[in-house]
Amino acid sequence: MIKYPDENQVPVHLASFLALILAFRVISLWFNNSELFFDEAQYWFWAQEPAFGYFSKPPMLAWIISLTTSMCGSDSSFCTRLASPLLHTVTAFFIYLSAASLFDRRTGFWAALAFVTLPGISLSATIASTDVPLLMFWSIALYAYVRLVNSTGLGWALLLGLALGVGLLSKYAMAYFVGCAIIHALIERSRDHPLLTYRFWLAFVIGLMILSPNIWWNFQNSFVTAAHTGENIGWSGFQLNYTGALEFFGSQFGVFGPILFGIFLATIFRMSKDSISPAHRLLLAFSLPIILTILFQALMSKAYANWAAAAYVAATILVVEILVNRIPGIWLKVSFWLRGIVFAAISVAVCFAGPGQLVLPKGIQPFLRTQGGSEIATHVAAMLDEGEYSALVTTDRKLSALLNYYLRNRVEPIHAWRSSAIPHDHYQLVAAYQDAPSGPVLLVTRQPNQAAILSKFSENQALGERNIAAGEIKSVFFFRLDKYQGGSVAE
Fold first, then answer.
1. Which of 28, 63, 269, 490 is deepest in the core (most CB within 10 A)?
2. Structural domains counted in the chain
């Protein structure tokens, strides 16, 4: 059994370790040499005009980026990503509070440190992602729920409602929390369970009230976010994706760490044989259903490794309690050493994330996804300087995101070509070329054959191709277009 640190010294020790990890991450972020990849650039674009909703996500991350870049006085990648290590630290603190309430302060101490050094969190702390605020508000909601289960105070219901609402404004995956609470009520079958009182449902109503501006935004925009979410789910018939399910399952060993995820699986196996405490049942109710849901999604279509991220708030507490109190302490030590190595490796590796700086065996480049944006922008800027253009037009979300960020100091407006009445990304929703046609314009595309677009202009000229030395985008094609004759996007 792990006994360090002394119960009375836990808060001071925890604050010291969390501050040290945070400082290391902020320094690493300052020297981070990776460019914004297109999702991050898209979130930055959203932050330029704060709203109650965006095409594919609710607004919280955009609001956060708007805040950090305003406080920094800069649109740099450092300022765009700065909230990530800060918010993960807050999440770790609330995990400590939940674990201390369910078990003891020592378990809370180790759980907080385990979470903040998870491989998935070490990676997440280097980028701007909607998972970051989701995890923070999920951890706050879990703490409020734990206190709500063990007390009759109305204040915990109010905190739970606030966390639910703001969590939903961060990512709709926060809705899993209500499902997990229902599963927990079914498991416990207690007459005084919070779900059988007005307090939980008061929290639920508060959460919906906080979310309501985003619902109204979606109503005003034909529920484009719901449609996009449906496309992401992508179920089509009963063609089961066994490979995708295995890949998702295997990826969780990387997200959570091999030892922690292995113990989590062993705990599920033991659950059918041994009686477990109410605290363990609560933590399983708020973790296992999420993983199983996303595993089923992977089987039916596809799922990314981070889609089950919310499960690991409760799962971390559950596994760490077992590591601290129920099995030999060597496993806790080994798991921390492994996560510490990954934490240090990622923190250092991002400082060498430029093109050609970090190439692994067989030519693998772990930061390839973040490269090439500035180079594409350099080619586009040169083309704009060679001619007189009233605007720039792009044909896909990646180019729209990257060029809006890396050409943010240019005067030429950037429009997205919208090929149908239904927008397929946020740029087509708010900056479609057809909404304000002008000419001449520079068309930038990744596909050489753009006959459908060229036919909408009475004057068009191919300007050639530019090769990109880094990143997933290998080449871009340019066209000069003038005298738009296309009419509406529905034609």
1. 28
2. 2
DSSP 372-404: SHHHHHHHHHHHHHHS--SEEEESSHHHHHHHH
337 and 376 in a single domain? The answer is no
Q: What is the CATH number for 410?
A: 3.40.50
- What the block records as the tokens of 270 is 């033991």
Is the residue at 490 inside a domain?
no
| pLDDT tens, the chain, 491 aa long | 555 667 778 889 999 999 999 999 999 999 999 999 999 999 999 999 999 999 889 999 999 999 999 999 999 999 999 999 999 999 999 999 999 999 999 999 999 999 999 999 999 999 999 999 999 999 999 999 999 998 878 999 999 999 999 999 999 999 999 999 999 999 887 777 888 889 999 999 999 999 999 999 999 888 887 766 666 665 555 678 889 999 999 999 999 999 999 999 998 887 655 568 899 999 999 999 999 999 999 998 888 899 999 999 999 999 999 999 888 889 999 999 999 999 999 999 999 988 878 788 877 788 888 899 999 999 999 999 998 899 999 999 999 999 999 999 999 999 999 988 888 899 999 999 999 898 899 999 999 999 999 999 999 999 999 999 888 899 999 999 999 997 755 44
pTM (2 d.p.):
0.94
Query: Is the CB of residue 82 less than 8 Å from the CB of residue 72?
Result: yes
Whether residues 438 and 334 fall in one domain: no
Considering the domain architecture, whether residues 475 and 345 belong to the same structural domain is answered as no
Phi-psi region of 356 (alpha: psi -120 to 50; beta: other; left: phi over 0): left
Whether 72 and 110 map to the same domain: the answer is: yes
Q: Is residue 215 part of a domain?
A: yes
Shared-domain flag, residues 336 and 377: no
Same-domain status, 434 and 327: no
Q: Which two tokens stand for residue 86?
A: 């800060």
* Side chain identity, residue 470: A
- Which residue matches tokens 């507490």? 317
Domain that holds residue 408: 372-484
